[in-house]
Design a protein that fits this description.
heterodimer, A: alpha+beta, 5-stranded mixed beta sheet, 9 helices, 12% strand, B: alpha+beta, Cytochrome Bc1 Complex, Chain D, domain 2, 3-stranded mixed beta sheet, 11 helices
Chain lengths: 367, 402
């Protein structure tokens, strides 16, 4: 005879199977979610089999008193998860995956609570048993979620306020955390309600600030940068770029894979190929192979080395993008990583030149 | 007891047989990758170091083996009582630590000196870029007017250098780590993606020097070979001039002309032949970056001036013609090599087999059904499904690339 516990596990396995099929059909095949659901399904099937074989354990020891069974919020949580699953099917996979997490969490908690309530005739002992099983999982998960919410809220605040305000806020928050931590450490007898109250207040403050900041949006310069892509494309003209040239690097620590060093000295551009002592006005770079070129500026003023991208393909809609170093002052050096997939005879001529300096260039052969 | 004696006899015989095989193998005459036969100053430096080191190591090894044998024989179990056990003998321990330490220190001094000498590049006379990829080597010669190289030369399979010239190889790789090794000219040097490593080669006199990729690099690692060709300075100048000579299209109506058409339809997707033009007069430009995982395929300009193809796995010369070049005296070598490969000496069987179904004769990742991980790009040459007629035409065409 299949008993109540076995029926519960079989139902759980059936629900899991439906979820797995829905996931594979509507979300994504061969994804990590499908693998996880498959493993859970296999595990629940195994548990079901064990429960059926042992007839839910020793039935004689099970308390018959229905009063041992307390109220539970987990069926409600599970139903919310199922609703999220349904919503996810018609909205987005993120909602669906979140639904899976909620359903699994609800079912697991429900199962653990049901199991603990049948442990003995003593409700207090049963509750303690549930805590012993569930708390080592619940506490880290809830703590991670809580810390995640706080960090996310704090990041919204930092992205909304100006840079200088952000620095001040960071100092203030850091100081508060330090002072609070020190206080709790040196006053271990502090009332628990005070500690809880302070932590709750601080958390709520940060979360409220995060929500408000999210409503305000990013600060102006970030909005501008995101809109114009200052950090994703280089500005290779002779003039100083507001963003690209900011905090330019002046020295190199990495000198690997250097195919040539290009020097600007007395207004003249000269290249020195790796392994060759004599100067040259033409360098060779193997195709389909990333290499570095070091640019050194020995002249007064700020200059940048630019790599011409060559011609666009005949059927290409967009012009190839130039690559360049930042503007660097006298005595500084930077490297430029170049990869040419096409030969010079195809998309060339390729060259290296200094922005704003006419009549000086290094020819780049790509055989 | 009889079984034990029989087992001992068998083991002794097998040991003797293996030793005999190893000893007789060292007498092989046809050993182009012999590490004890230096043909250039860099390899000579290594040889000058390794011979004394080998002698010292051999003497030490012999002493150890003889001592071990003597101890085993002298103190073998004859039923005698176990002797008194002792522990620790400072004099013996210090002596046996100091002697090896001193030997290693002396060897270390000379080794470090040779390492630094081999790394010397400031007197380089010529540079060549060497790029490894699965499973062939590309050589490109940057512009060097002093050697008559007015435009970059790209070749593969055989590295051609002027004899008596300090050549600096700038090695890198387009895919995985390979290792360049011409034992007669220098030691090994890894070709690593994202790095440029240098290796100096210099050949004393004209000839062919064989090598082999020595870093496991995938399916056809064993078939990734190379040959360094040293020519006299005069012959090297001729070779350079020929490599830069304009492309000559086969005569209209010839089989080779039809082969040029096949090449333009099939091969030019990956293989470049400098100067080759399409019917509309535009240059035919290969796009290996769109078809090959490494982004490169051998440039076949002047293919028949080389003696090998398919990553130097196959000879372009027939077995009958090959010794004429390989065994030529240094004085005659240049003329024979520069003659290239003609129809009478073409190893047409291997070439046709390669064109018919390349992955069948050289293991490569070129099965169109298994190119998912490489986004549809091949590693090696795929089976192009050419008809026998097309192969005839292609062979005729390739023969004109001299």
């Amino acid at each position: 005879m299949i008993r109540t516990g076995s029926k519960f596990l079989i139902g759980l396995a059936a629900l899991n199977a439906v979820t797995l099929i829905a996931y594979l059909l509507f979300v994504e095949r061969l994804a990590i979610g499908g693998v996880a659901l498959s493993i859970v399904f296999a595990a629940v099937c195994g548990l079901s089999a064990v429960a059926i074989i042992v007839r839910d354990g020793d039935d004689e020891a099970q308390p018959a008193d229905a009063a041992l069974v307390g109220a539970s919020m987990w069926p409600l949580v599970t139903v919310v998860g199922v609703v999220l699953l349904a919503l996810g099917l018609i909205t987005s996979s993120a909602v669906f995956v979140f639904g899976i997490v909620v359903v699994l969490a609800g079912l697991i908690e429900w199962a653990v609570q049901s199991w603990s309530e049948s442990a003995s005739d003593d409700p207090a002992y049963n509750a303690a048993t549930r805590k012993r099983i569930a708390n080592p999982i619940e506490f880290p998960v809830l703590a991670t979620l809580g810390v995640g919410v706080v960090i996310f809220s704090f990041s919204r605040i930092m992205l909304a306020v100006s840079k200088s305000t952000g620095a001040v806020l960071f100092l203030v928050f850091g100081t508060i955390v330090l002072v609070g931590g020190t206080l709790f450490a040196v006053r271990p007898g502090l009332k628990r309600s005070i500690v809880t109250g302070l932590c709750t207040l601080a958390t709520l403050g940060i979360v409220a600030g995060g929500i408000a900041s999210a409503g305000v949006g990013l600060r102006a310069d970030l909005v501008e940068a995101a809109a114009e892509g200052h950090y994703s494309h280089r500005e290779c003209g002779p003039e100083r770029s507001k963003y690209f040239d900011k905090l330019e690097m002046r020295t190199l620590s990495l000198r690997s894979n250097v195919v040539a060093t290009v020097e600007l000295r007395d207004g003249k551009l000269t290249a020195y190929e790796f392994g060759v002592q004599s100067p040259t006005q033409a360098i060779t770079i193997q195709r389909s192979n990333p290499v570095n070129v070091i640019f050194r500026n020995y002249d007064e003023g700020e200059f940048r080395l630019v790599a011409s991208p060559g011609k666009a393909a005949a059927d290409a809609m967009e012009k190839p993008e130039e690559l360049c170093t930042q503007l660097i002052p006298e005595g500084a050096e930077q490297s430029l990583t170049l990869t040419y997939a096409k030969a010079s005879i195809d998309r060339g001529p390729y060259s290296l030149f200094v922005a704003g300096l006419t009549g000086q260039s290094i020819e780049v052969f790509v055989p | 007891m009889n079984k034990l004696a029989s087992l001992r006899r068998t083991v002794t015989r097998i040991g003797a047989l293996l030793t005999g095989v190893v000893v007789t193998a060292s007498c092989a005459q046809n050993a182009p990758q012999d590490t004890w036969a230096p043909k250039g100053p860099n390899a000579q430096m290594i040889d000058d170091l390794q011979k004394p080191v080998f002698a010292v190591a051999g003497i030490v090894g012999l002493i150890v083996v003889v001592a071990l044998g003597w101890v085993l024989w002298r103190y073998k179990d004859r039923g005698q009582p176990i002797p008194e056990q002792t522990h620790g003998n400072p004099v013996v321990e210090i002596t046996l630590t100091l002697i090896p330490a001193l030997i290693l220190a002396v060897i270390g001094v000379f080794t470090v000196r040779v390492i630094f000498d081999l790394a010397k590049t400031d007197d380089t006379e010529m540079i060549i870029n060497v790029t490894g990829q699965q499973w062939w080597w590309e050589y490109d010669y940057p512009v060097q007017n002093e050697f008559g190289i007015a435009q970059p030369i790209v070749t593969s399979g055989q590295l051609v250098i002027p004899a008596g010239t300090k050549v600096l190889l700038r090695e890198t790789s387009r895919d995985v780590i390979h290792s360049y090794w011409i034992p007669a000219l220098n030691g090994k040097r890894d070709a690593v993606p994202g790095r440029i490593h240098t290796l100096r080669l210099e050949a004393d006199e004209p000839g062919i020097y064989a090598g082999q990729c020595t870093e496991f690099c995938g399916l056809s690692h064993a078939n990734m070979r190379m040959e360094a060709i040293a020519l006299s300075k005069e012959d090297f100048a001729k070779w350079v001039a020929n490599q830069q000579a304009p492309y000559v299209s086969p005569a209209e109506g010839s089989l080779a002309k039809e082969g040029e058409g096949v090449f333009l339809n099939q091969c030019v997707r990956c293989h470049q032949v400098d100067g080759l033009k399409r019917a509309d007069g535009t240059l035919a430009i290969a796009a290996p970056d769109e078809n090959v995982w490494s982004g490169a395929a051998p440039n076949l300009t002047k293919l028949m001036t080389r003696n090998t193809f398919a990553g130097a796995m196959f000879d372009l010369l027939t077995p009958a013609c090959r010794p004429g070049v390989w065994n030529a005296s240094p004085a005659e070598f240049g003329e024979k090599y520069l003659a290239g490969v003609g129809e009478e000496c073409l190893n047409v069987n291997d070439l046709r087999a390669w064109l018919r179904n390349a992955p069948e004769v050289k293991p490569m990742y070129a099965n169109p059904d298994q190119l998912g991980p490489t986004n549809g790009k091949v590693r090696g040459m795929p089976n192009l499904g050419l008809s026998e007629s097309d192969i005839d035409k292609l062979v005729a065409y390739l023969l004109t690339l001299k």
